[in-house]
Amino acid sequence: KEKVEINREQRALMKAIVDAYNRHQIPQDVAKKLLQDQYSPEENFLLLTEMATSQVQVLVEFTKNIPGFLSLDREDQIALLKGSAVEAMFLRSAQVFSRKMPTGHTDVLEERVRKSGIPDEFMTPMFNFYKSIGELHMVQEEQAILTAITILTPDRPYVKDPQAVERLQETMLDVLRKLCVLQHPQEQQYFARLLGRLTELRTLSHYHSEMLASWRMNDHKFTPLLCEIWDVQ
Length: 233
Ligand SMILES: O=C(NC1CCCCC1)[C@H](C1CCCCC1)n1c(-c2ccc(-c3nnn[nH]3)cc2)nc2ccccc21
Prior knowledge:
The protein has 11 helices and no strands. The protein has helices at residues 8-23, 30-36, 41-64, 74-98, 105-114, 123-134, 140-151, 162-183, 190-206, 208-213, 224-230. The protein is globular, with a radius of gyration of 18 Å. The structure holds ligand 9NP.
């Protein structure tokens, strides 16, 4: 069995990414708000757009701290952020949903999300994803690097130099592979399962614009930033 070890350079890379990931957290805890009270679809949609807007801002700051990202072509940086924003939002939502909470709180949270105004046909794929992320019991280093890998996906629309992006993503994938072996020595295929979640995440994000349009309410208002990122309005 090969001796897996994370070298000094990879440890520095991981530290930079985890520090950035922890520094740029969503200011207000949406789970706490949802557990406190039941809201109307209109209020929930407003909460979603506020949280999503704040998360995009946080995502930009996080991404700027990914070593090598700022050396990419400027337009490719934008294309990567735009192409990964929805996936990053669902990945973050899954991490919020899977966080350890006092007994019964997760069930209440699930109920609140199910009754928030999201159309029923999206509940199954969305919660299947959330639960499949939860089952992995990712450590925060894995969460941070998985988010960086999602952002550094070379085949986003309009990326002019995918090879440059691929080189950065491969560096991240190598660190994540080693981390998985070290953190989950019993589970041979843990790394493969983790990457399989990214496929599920991409599928879930294909529903996104349809999900947004069919929230059970009229007059969906978005912030200017979300209009840019979500291609709506
Ligand atoms: O605020 C949220 N997520 C933020 C988490 C932190 C990063 C930024 C997004 C939403 C809640 C908004 C208020 C109504 C209930 C859902 N959320 C979602 C969620 C649900 C539907 C869509 C969506 N997209 N397009 N149509 N519906 C997006 C996200 N899943 C969650 C799981 C646990 C906790 C909160 C969750």
